[in-house]
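Ligand-bound model needed. flavin-adenine dinucleotide.
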Amino acid sequence: MIKDITVNVDAKLSLNRYDVDEEAAHIELKEPDAAPDFDREFDKLVLACPAGLYKRDADGRTSFDYAGCLECGTCRILCGTTILDHWNYPGPTKGVEYRWG
Amino acid sequence: MADFDVIVVGAGCAGSVAAYQLAKAGKSVLMIERGNYAGAKNMTGGRIYSHSLKKVFPDFEEEAPLERRVTHERISLIDPEANFTIDFTSDKMHTPGEDSWTVLRGPFDQWLAQQAEDAGAECIYGIPVDDLVTEDGAVKGVVAGEDTLTADIVILADGVNSLLTAKAVGAPTPQPHQMAVGLKELIELPAEVIEDRLLLAPGEGAAWLFAGDATHGHVGGAFMYTNKDSISLGLVATLSDLVTADTPVYQMFEDFKQHPAVAPPVKGGKVVEYSGHMVPEGGYAMVPKLVTDGCLVTGDAGMLCINLGYCVRGMDFAVTSGDFAAQAAIEALDAGDVSAAKLARYTQLLDGSYVMKDLRQFQKFPHFMESTKRIFNEYPAMVRDMMNNLFIVDGEPCVPLRRKLMDPVKTVGIMNVLKDAKGGVTAL
Ligand SMILES: Cc1cc2nc3c(=O)[nH]c(=O)nc-3n(C[C@H](O)[C@H](O)[C@H](O)COP(=O)(O)OP(=O)(O)OC[C@H]3O[C@@H](n4cnc5c(N)ncnc54)[C@H](O)[C@@H]3O)c2cc1C
Ligand code: SF4
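Prediction:
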């Protein structure tokens, strides 16, 4: 069971500079029916994605938005062969841009 | 004929050093970086141990955009309710080549890449390499978008999350117990405030690592590094154990940031950036093949990194491996032989240096950390209780010192403590 979350990660992400590729998603999930253990695998990413992009709402519905991605690759290591359909780097000039890093 | 003598993929510490040395030796070099400038995609703790950089750039102290020289080492054993810190400072920390400097990868990587460009390397930014051109297992070039470019040698310096080493050298995808996720806030504060709060002389810096329970009892740790006008505050957690937690990693970080030992130094600071990056933690066991026909693998792409909790080293390994890769490539190009057998000079150089010696020395450490979860919950609590017994005076008659110290040890179990101490000493 995941405990209550008090921190607003989206507000932290909004500090960063991004050029989001609206045309193409560099990370996509499989359909829940197409992957055995979808829920269990998804919850790993709820815990481990530093950007909090894998979300489960109060009714248990899952959602994912690649827009705030920090391009760390954690979800690829954990679920690259289970519930991710693909994991690529964003296309030319796109994605996060650290000013300090 | 190939388009270039060498193509370097990735302009991090390893890539830029390799490109610099190759260009300086008169080779035609193309460095391709997916960020819009070097450093745009990179994050580190962090501090770089200078010994590696000094060999390549003897005057780097004057030239590179460094933040602060580390003159204070702080290491804490943190528990949610307490914190026990050792603060060490020494004249040795001022010795060039034995010292370490905090850096921010945005400015630092741009400077490194500029050295390569000034030496004559061509650099392209904002373009990810999508694929490698191979022929009978030999690497012949790279594919980026519509373009194919060929080279006698390709140096992979594309970091911990390399999508190219699988094809080049058959590197397996790292396992979750071999990888940690790191996240970090950059917190702006005036220089004098940082110096006053962290007890630093003007211009000097601190490296502060938090072992124990910064991660809700799970395998991981946290760090605080002082920069000129900012503090790098972050947390690292091993993936295999993190996914058994009940709290997301970003919430662990927030709880760490609110800890009474951590909040005061960063109080009132302005968070200006939030970053995430993986750390290869599996040590020697996860190093893939580093050489194949026409290709060398360097830095984090080759998993050349050590995380000991009190000491994280990846940037010095990256610099040295980039340097050695360039040396091996130059010898191979001059001999007109870029086969794996000839390029094996690279692994020879690594084997003969601190890089492989240290990786081997600490090869048992990752397993020790992973299998000794007490480090992340029971031991911080044990030390907290010992110190409470020692320092809290409440008017009750005192128990003898022996009991003050031994009672908390008994709670964990004397045999457990002895066993873990032996394991730790063997692994280090
Ligand atoms: C939280 C954290 C704390 C750390 N603390 C320290 C510390 O204090 N001291 C220390 O020495 N080390 C530390 N490390 C480790 C250190 O940061 C790394 O070991 C080091 O940065 C590795 O350098 P590199 O050049 O191999 O890779 P990177 O610096 O990651 O460079 C790889 C480059 O390749 C580019 N790239 C990737 N794929 C492609 C592609 N397909 N096409 C084109 N370009 C590509 C990337 O954009 C990047 O610029 C830390 C790491 C983390 C995550
Ligand atoms: S790459 Fe990292 S930041 Fe991006 S979605 Fe995956 S885990 Fe989250």
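Residues 177-280 of chain B form a domain with the D-Amino Acid Oxidase; Chain A, domain 2 fold (CATH 3.30.9.90).
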